[in-house]
Amino acid sequence: MGPRSARRIHRVPRATPGQEGSAYLIALMVLIILTLLGLQLTLVTQTEILIGGNDRLIEKTFYAAESGLDLSISRALADGNFSAAFHERRRSELEDGQRVDVRERVSSSPFFCVGDAPCNLCSINQGRNYARRNHVLSVNALRSGIVPGGSDVELASKSVTSMVDVEPMERLLGCLADLPDATSGFKFDDY
Fold first, then answer.
1. Which helix (H) or strand (E) holds 95?
2. How many CB atoms lie within 10 A of CB 156?
3. Closest CA to 141 of 126, 160, 123, 164
4. Is the pLDDT assigned to residue 180 strictly greater than 80?
5. Which of 22, 45, 97, 157 has the most Cβ atoms closer than 10 angstroms to its Cβ?
6. How many other CB atoms sit within 10 Å of the CB of residue 157?
7. Residue 39: is it exposed, middle or buried by C-beta count within 10 angstroms (0-12/13-18/19+)?
8. Which of 152, 72, 143 lies closest to 112 in space, CA to CA?
9. Beta strand pairing status for 130-146 and 112-117?
10. pTM of the complete model
11. CA quadruple 42, 48, 54, 60: dihedral sign
12. pLDDT (tens digit per residue) in 137-173
Protein backbone atom coordinates (compact mmCIF):
# COMPACT_ATOMS: atom_id res chain seq x y z
CA MET A 1 0.00 0.00 0.00
CA GLY A 2 0.97 3.53 -0.45
CA PRO A 3 1.73 6.22 1.95
CA ARG A 4 -0.79 7.22 4.52
CA SER A 5 -1.33 10.62 3.00
CA ALA A 6 -2.92 9.03 -0.10
CA ARG A 7 -5.79 7.65 1.92
CA ARG A 8 -8.55 9.97 2.81
CA ILE A 9 -11.43 9.20 4.99
CA HIS A 10 -14.68 10.97 4.27
CA ARG A 11 -16.95 11.47 7.16
CA VAL A 12 -20.60 12.47 6.88
CA PRO A 13 -21.22 15.59 8.93
CA ARG A 14 -23.72 15.09 11.68
CA ALA A 15 -26.79 17.31 11.85
CA THR A 16 -26.67 20.02 14.37
CA PRO A 17 -29.18 19.78 17.17
CA GLY A 18 -32.72 20.99 16.15
CA GLN A 19 -32.36 20.14 12.42
CA GLU A 20 -33.24 16.48 12.62
CA GLY A 21 -36.34 15.65 10.45
CA SER A 22 -36.41 18.99 8.62
CA ALA A 23 -36.23 17.31 5.20
CA TYR A 24 -39.36 15.34 6.08
CA LEU A 25 -41.23 18.54 7.01
CA ILE A 26 -40.13 20.33 3.82
CA ALA A 27 -41.26 17.37 1.68
CA LEU A 28 -44.57 17.28 3.53
CA MET A 29 -45.12 21.03 2.96
CA VAL A 30 -44.36 20.69 -0.77
CA LEU A 31 -46.77 17.76 -0.99
CA ILE A 32 -49.55 19.77 0.72
CA ILE A 33 -49.01 22.73 -1.63
CA LEU A 34 -49.11 20.48 -4.71
CA THR A 35 -52.29 18.80 -3.42
CA LEU A 36 -53.97 22.18 -2.94
CA LEU A 37 -52.96 23.26 -6.45
CA GLY A 38 -54.36 20.02 -7.88
CA LEU A 39 -57.67 20.49 -6.06
CA GLN A 40 -57.91 24.07 -7.32
CA LEU A 41 -57.26 22.91 -10.88
CA THR A 42 -59.97 20.26 -10.54
CA LEU A 43 -62.47 22.86 -9.29
CA VAL A 44 -61.67 25.23 -12.16
CA THR A 45 -62.03 22.39 -14.69
CA GLN A 46 -65.41 21.32 -13.30
CA THR A 47 -66.64 24.93 -13.40
CA GLU A 48 -65.52 25.33 -17.01
CA ILE A 49 -67.31 22.11 -17.98
CA LEU A 50 -70.56 23.39 -16.40
CA ILE A 51 -70.21 26.76 -18.14
CA GLY A 52 -69.61 25.02 -21.48
CA GLY A 53 -72.70 22.84 -20.99
CA ASN A 54 -74.86 25.87 -20.19
CA ASP A 55 -73.52 27.74 -23.23
CA ARG A 56 -74.34 24.75 -25.43
CA LEU A 57 -77.87 24.62 -24.03
CA ILE A 58 -78.44 28.35 -24.55
CA GLU A 59 -77.05 28.17 -28.09
CA LYS A 60 -79.41 25.31 -28.96
CA THR A 61 -82.36 27.33 -27.69
CA PHE A 62 -81.23 30.46 -29.54
CA TYR A 63 -80.88 28.53 -32.80
CA ALA A 64 -84.35 27.04 -32.29
CA ALA A 65 -85.77 30.57 -31.95
CA GLU A 66 -83.82 31.76 -34.98
CA SER A 67 -85.08 28.78 -37.00
CA GLY A 68 -88.64 29.63 -35.98
CA LEU A 69 -88.06 33.17 -37.22
CA ASP A 70 -86.75 31.91 -40.56
CA LEU A 71 -89.62 29.44 -40.88
CA SER A 72 -92.23 32.15 -40.24
CA ILE A 73 -90.62 34.46 -42.80
CA SER A 74 -90.49 31.63 -45.35
CA ARG A 75 -94.18 30.82 -44.76
CA ALA A 76 -95.10 34.46 -45.23
CA LEU A 77 -93.12 34.91 -48.42
CA ALA A 78 -93.92 31.55 -50.03
CA ASP A 79 -97.55 31.01 -48.97
CA GLY A 80 -98.69 34.49 -47.97
CA ASN A 81 -99.44 33.16 -44.46
CA PHE A 82 -98.73 35.99 -42.00
CA SER A 83 -100.42 34.37 -39.00
CA ALA A 84 -98.90 33.08 -35.77
CA ALA A 85 -97.21 29.67 -35.78
CA PHE A 86 -96.36 27.01 -33.22
CA HIS A 87 -93.89 24.15 -33.60
CA GLU A 88 -92.93 21.47 -31.12
CA ARG A 89 -90.15 18.91 -31.35
CA ARG A 90 -89.47 16.06 -28.92
CA ARG A 91 -86.48 13.82 -28.63
CA SER A 92 -84.36 12.02 -26.07
CA GLU A 93 -80.95 13.44 -25.08
CA LEU A 94 -78.25 12.91 -22.49
CA GLU A 95 -78.17 15.86 -20.05
CA ASP A 96 -76.03 15.89 -16.91
CA GLY A 97 -75.33 12.18 -17.20
CA GLN A 98 -78.93 10.98 -17.41
CA ARG A 99 -81.43 10.37 -20.20
CA VAL A 100 -83.89 13.27 -20.55
CA ASP A 101 -86.89 13.65 -22.86
CA VAL A 102 -86.34 17.12 -24.33
CA ARG A 103 -89.15 19.23 -25.75
CA GLU A 104 -88.51 22.37 -27.80
CA ARG A 105 -91.52 24.64 -28.24
CA VAL A 106 -91.20 27.51 -30.70
CA SER A 107 -94.06 29.98 -31.04
CA SER A 108 -94.09 33.01 -33.30
CA SER A 109 -96.31 36.04 -33.27
CA PRO A 110 -98.29 37.06 -36.31
CA PHE A 111 -96.65 39.65 -38.51
CA PHE A 112 -97.54 43.07 -37.09
CA CYS A 113 -97.64 45.73 -39.78
CA VAL A 114 -95.93 48.88 -38.57
CA GLY A 115 -96.08 50.92 -41.74
CA ASP A 116 -96.17 51.26 -45.50
CA ALA A 117 -93.49 52.79 -47.66
CA PRO A 118 -93.33 53.30 -51.37
CA CYS A 119 -91.51 50.47 -53.05
CA ASN A 120 -89.14 50.93 -55.92
CA LEU A 121 -90.71 50.22 -59.30
CA CYS A 122 -93.94 48.80 -57.75
CA SER A 123 -96.16 51.19 -59.67
CA ILE A 124 -94.40 50.25 -62.90
CA ASN A 125 -94.25 46.46 -62.41
CA GLN A 126 -97.30 45.63 -60.28
CA GLY A 127 -99.49 48.74 -60.27
CA ARG A 128 -100.40 51.43 -57.74
CA ASN A 129 -101.98 49.03 -55.21
CA TYR A 130 -98.58 47.68 -54.14
CA ALA A 131 -96.17 49.00 -51.50
CA ARG A 132 -93.37 47.91 -49.21
CA ARG A 133 -94.74 46.88 -45.80
CA ASN A 134 -92.66 46.84 -42.63
CA HIS A 135 -93.58 44.12 -40.14
CA VAL A 136 -92.42 43.16 -36.66
CA LEU A 137 -92.13 39.47 -35.86
CA SER A 138 -91.25 37.93 -32.51
CA VAL A 139 -90.40 34.29 -31.78
CA ASN A 140 -90.19 32.62 -28.37
CA ALA A 141 -88.34 29.33 -27.90
CA LEU A 142 -88.62 27.20 -24.78
CA ARG A 143 -86.51 24.12 -24.12
CA SER A 144 -87.73 21.87 -21.33
CA GLY A 145 -86.85 18.39 -20.16
CA ILE A 146 -88.72 15.59 -18.46
CA VAL A 147 -86.56 13.38 -16.26
CA PRO A 148 -87.90 9.81 -15.98
CA GLY A 149 -90.28 9.74 -13.02
CA GLY A 150 -90.09 13.53 -12.71
CA SER A 151 -91.86 16.63 -13.88
CA ASP A 152 -91.32 19.05 -16.75
CA VAL A 153 -88.31 21.27 -15.98
CA GLU A 154 -87.49 24.41 -17.96
CA LEU A 155 -83.91 24.22 -19.23
CA ALA A 156 -83.65 27.43 -21.27
CA SER A 157 -85.76 30.05 -23.03
CA LYS A 158 -84.92 32.63 -25.68
CA SER A 159 -86.76 35.35 -27.61
CA VAL A 160 -85.84 36.77 -31.00
CA THR A 161 -87.50 39.80 -32.61
CA SER A 162 -86.96 41.05 -36.13
CA MET A 163 -88.18 43.68 -38.56
CA VAL A 164 -89.24 42.21 -41.89
CA ASP A 165 -89.84 44.20 -45.08
CA VAL A 166 -92.16 42.61 -47.61
CA GLU A 167 -91.98 44.10 -51.07
CA PRO A 168 -94.15 44.21 -53.17
CA MET A 169 -97.25 43.70 -51.07
CA GLU A 170 -100.82 44.57 -51.97
CA ARG A 171 -102.19 47.57 -50.14
CA LEU A 172 -105.65 46.06 -50.39
CA LEU A 173 -104.66 43.61 -47.63
CA GLY A 174 -105.09 45.08 -44.16
CA CYS A 175 -102.26 45.20 -41.69
CA LEU A 176 -102.49 42.48 -39.06
CA ALA A 177 -101.93 45.12 -36.37
CA ASP A 178 -105.22 46.73 -37.44
CA LEU A 179 -107.22 43.54 -36.93
CA PRO A 180 -108.97 43.26 -33.52
CA ASP A 181 -107.81 39.70 -32.79
CA ALA A 182 -104.26 40.02 -34.12
CA THR A 183 -102.57 39.84 -30.72
CA SER A 184 -104.83 37.23 -29.13
CA GLY A 185 -103.10 34.09 -27.95
CA PHE A 186 -99.60 35.50 -28.09
CA LYS A 187 -97.72 37.63 -25.60
CA PHE A 188 -94.21 38.85 -26.24
CA ASP A 189 -91.61 37.24 -23.93
CA ASP A 190 -94.25 35.21 -22.14
CA TYR A 191 -94.36 31.43 -22.09
1. strand 85-95
2. 19
3. 160
4. no
5. 157
6. 16
7. exposed
8. 72
9. antiparallel
10. 0.64
11. negative
12. 899 999 888 766 777 778 888 989 888 887 777 665 5
